[in-house]
Amino acid sequence: MKKLCIFCGSSTNVAQNHLDLGKEVGHLLAEKNIGLVYGAGSTGVMGSLADSVLEKGGKVWGVIPDFMIPWEVCHQNLTDLKITKTMHERKQIMYDYSDGFVALPGGLGTMEELCEILTWRQIGTHEKHVWILNPNGFYDGLMDHFKKLHHERFVSDEHLELIQERNDMNEIVSEFLNGEII
Q1: Using CA atoms, how far apart are residues 103 and 132, in angstroms rounded to an integer?
Q2: What is the average pLDDT across 146-169?
Q3: Taking a C-beta distance cutoff of 8 angstroms, is the pair 3, 34 a contact?
Q4: Among 168, 120, 123, 160, which Cα is nearest to 144's?
Q5: For residues 58 and 28, what is the distance between their CA atoms, to the nearest angstrom?
Q6: What is the pLDDT of residue 164?
Q7: Which terminus of the chain is more exposed, N or C, with fewer CB under 10 A?
Q8: What gap in Å lies between CA 49 and CA 148, rounded to an integer?
Q9: The model's pTM
Q10: Using an 8 Å Cβ cutoff, are 61 and 79 in contact?
Q11: Domain ranges in the chain?
Q12: Given 3.40.50.450, 3.40.50.300, 3.90.1150.10, 3.30.465.10, which CATH number is that of 3-178?
């Protein structure tokens, strides 16, 4: 089974459309027999995503540092749960378990995870898929900033192309299952 690691927010204080997106993405993953690897939270977009994969009979691997369990209200009904000591260990396990990465709406943690996995790709640590799902322009500001980094020559043409922005999760799933990669 191929697995996608999805970075997304755990905040419960977000607009309903973000929670709905998590649910839609989760259903699509389960329908396409794609496993979910994520941060093991049961709230926010994270919870909506995991619940919807499980609801459709899909598989979910959660990875969370022990000190974050109270913050993200650790999901108790996952296919597999790994509890780590550090964030670095968490991210390494998520990377090892995954065949590709997608950022859904989220906050600082999502940004940090996305930028780190893009950096790993840039320096040749991996060649796995990395996408940003940009529903309703959520990531327009970030995408503009990546373009500014390119314009100011902090990011090369080649590395800017690693940042794969899509507006539709169906497109990401198709590319992922077909092995298309930049």
Answers
A1: 5
A2: 96
A3: yes
A4: 160
A5: 10
A6: 95
A7: N
A8: 32
A9: 0.94
A10: yes
A11: 3-178
A12: 3.40.50.450
- Burial-class residue 44 by CB neighbours within 10 Å (0-12, 13-18, 19+): buried
Model confidence pLDDT, tens digit, residues 1-44: 899 999 999 999 999 999 999 999 999 999 999 999 999 999 99
Mean pLDDT (the chain) is: 95
In the block, tokens 């941060």 appear at: 39
Phi, psi of 138 (to 5 degrees): -55, -40
Residue with tokens 């991996």: 126
Cβ atoms of residues 18 and 50 within 8 Å: no
Tokens of 172: 């990401």
At 54, list the tokens.
């499980």
Specify the pLDDT at position 179: 83
Token pair belonging to 165: 């922005």
| Helix or strand (DSSP H, E) at 130 | strand 129-133
Tokens of 21: 């997106």
User: Which token pair is 132?
Assistant: 């940003």
